[in-house]
Amino acid sequence: MAKLLVTGGAGFIGANFLQFWQQNNPDDIIVTLDALTYAGNKNNLASILNESWFTFVHGSICDQALVESLLLEHDIDTLVHFAAESHVDRSITGPDAFIETNIVGTHTLLKAAKKIWINENKKQHHLFHHVSTDEVYGTLAADDPAFNEDTPYAPNSPYAASKAASDHLVRSYHHTYGLRVTTSNCSNNYGPYQFPEKLLPLCMLNILSGKALPIYGDGTQIRDWLYVDDHNRGIELVIKKGRLGETYNVGGNNERANIDVVNLLCELFDSRFAADTELASRFPDSPCAKGISAKTLITYVTDRPGHDTRYAINATKIMNELGYAPVEDFNSGLNKTIDWYLNNESWWRSILDGSYQQ
Ligand SMILES: NC(=O)c1ccc[n+]([C@@H]2O[C@H](COP(=O)([O-])OP(=O)(O)OC[C@H]3O[C@@H](n4cnc5c(N)ncnc54)[C@H](O)[C@@H]3O)[C@@H](O)[C@H]2O)c1
């Protein structure tokens, strides 16, 4: 039986991870530490908050004394670190929070883990798993090979730079102090509970309310999309079977231009409305309710400064070494995601009206 401390469990991937892990490892106990920033939402934990295996702690990863007390009090052996500032646009307008949470916060967790697990010798078989991003590798030209674990770091946004710094700190605590660490670097995720500032949920909700679908520049930037539980599947494998001190890229070999992703999403909504007349009465402001394609909402806007052209993940290492294989393809994953947003209207309405933080 493992005892996990999961940071950032009230965010998008963390919330999915908690449910994913518990289904596969029902005997484990999980404590989650989350500061409930704008991106953290206690409603994401509604289905598990009262479970005996679960404890929610409202607090910051920058609070070393709190982290040390949680490691001791709950006899934690595995720390899974999701907590971060994660939105590139926000890192451009306000980088300080990214430095504080992603760099100082990660370092604070490392110091706490080293103190309790190594200096006080409380857990020989501990693991610190760090969740990171493919954005640390920078950008690719159209014909460049996909990022592998040996691709040099070349972060281009303050978000990517702060994650790169945190990756280096995690690595250094392994090499210098012997902290048992693993790191995973994943491509763009999508799925339930994603905050509607990111491309897919933003476009879904805008289609339903008849608002513009903003596309940066000409929309040709390429991202490699992975369904969130396929990311969690990779993290679980790395935690259980990964080699200490190693990094593993997680991806689904699913490169798509942003404009193609939005066009596909529009087509899926057009078909949903055509097949289910109830949707037109639930969402009368959507063009789909009047038989007009959601594509009419697509609006090109000024590009993000320094916008990376292409990300692509080479996941050969995790596939060959740990037997990783994603389960969802893009159509099945998108349809699951659309189902979830249609079935959880009160969840996203409470974000749109701000009541989720009360
Ligand atoms: N979303 C993606 O596509 C993607 C892809 C690859 C890697 N990642 C990484 O995965 C992790 C999770 O991403 P996400 O999309 O779920 O992010 P998110 O923004 O949805 O959630 C972040 C969570 O961290 C919490 N948090 C922020 N600062 C904190 C602090 N100081 N102390 C405690 N909790 C704090 C927030 O309240 C929130 O619950 C991040 O580390 C991110 O870099 C994300």
TrEMBL record:
Keywords: Lyase, NAD. Its EC number is 4.2.1.46. InterPro entries: dTDP_Gluc_deHydtase (IPR005888), NAD(P)-bd_dom (IPR016040), NAD(P)-bd_dom_sf (IPR036291), Sc_DH/Rdtase_CS (IPR020904). One of its GO terms (molecular function) is dTDP-glucose 4,6-dehydratase activity. GO terms for biological process: nucleotide-sugar metabolic process. It catalyses: dTDP-alpha-D-glucose = dTDP-4-dehydro-6-deoxy-alpha-D-glucose + H2O. Transmembrane segments: none annotated. It is an enzyme of class 4 (lyase). Belongs to the NAD(P)-dependent epimerase/dehydratase family. dTDP-glucose dehydratase subfamily. NCBIfam families: dTDP_gluc_dehyt (TIGR01181). This is dTDP-glucose 4,6-dehydratase. It comes from SAR86 cluster bacterium. The lineage of its organism: Bacteria, Pseudomonadati, Pseudomonadota, Gammaproteobacteria, SAR86 cluster. The gene is rfbB.
